Amino acid sequence: MGCSYNYTAGESVQQTEWYKGRRQSGFWTSGVWKHVALSNSPSFHNRFEYLGDRRHDCSVAIHDLWVNDTGHYHFRFDMETFHRWSQTSVYLTVTELSASVSPAGVRAGDNVTLRCETSCPHEATVWFKDGLPVARAQFQARAEDSGNYACALKGVESFLSDPVALDVQYPPLNVSVETSSSASGVNLTCSSAANPAADSYTWYRGAGSSPGPLLEVGSGPVLSLASGGGAAHAGLYYRCRASNHLGGSYSPGPLLPVTPDSTDNISLCDA
């Protein structure tokens, strides 16, 4: 806060001080001061900085503002034989920024609006997602938009609101199948990206070199194929479908054609 003061020529300033408080009416007096010196207040420790001097500059800085810093501020300077107060006070308003997301429940494809509210008059706000700038406050939600959002007034980006979480829900995406060997044969494991996580897995078996009618052959994230009798699996392939309450999708296909090897065991390869 910028500030200047004057006094009679030839006098010298012995001490300066800023106070928080205001003049209040008293019962027997015209008024009393209810104030606290910033340099002696624990709440302003390491946050109050006097930028002025003992001549004519009384500027002051208060760092890392808190809501409780709201109030009236006065300046006082002491001469050799008397002291003077600033004729008026400056009123500082500190308001918290409040970030919100609308709607509360978001699915992929929904229109999302980020709102930043404050009692201070302002022209523009800026947004950050997980610490990185956000281009727009209105957008169509995608899976990758999930995260923590905070807003700030443009020009004072170091003062952020408390973060608000955006949780974008979406059906399973990028469904894939991985294979692994076991003592009894081969395991096929189905996985996907989904929010909430996929809670249903269904396995299907097809025949031939191109997708055709599929037969449901199992459920759960892992399908086990027993070793031995590989000839019975010749020309077959497997696909899985991962689902949650928002929908489901299949692994690519045809996938993992099954062929017998020389020992009549199961052999898998990507199609």
From TrEMBL:
Gene3D superfamilies, sorted: Immunoglobulins
Keyword Cytoplasm in record: no
Source lineage: Eukaryota, Metazoa, Chordata, Craniata, Vertebrata
Domain (Ig-like): residue spans on this chain: 95-161, 171-259
Pfam families for the chain: Ig_2, Ig_CD22
Protein keywords: Receptor
Signal sequence coordinates: none
Protein name: B-cell receptor CD22
Species annotation: Liparis tanakae (Tanaka's snailfish)
InterPro entries named in the record: Ig-like_dom, Ig-like_dom_sf, Ig-like_fold, Ig_CD22
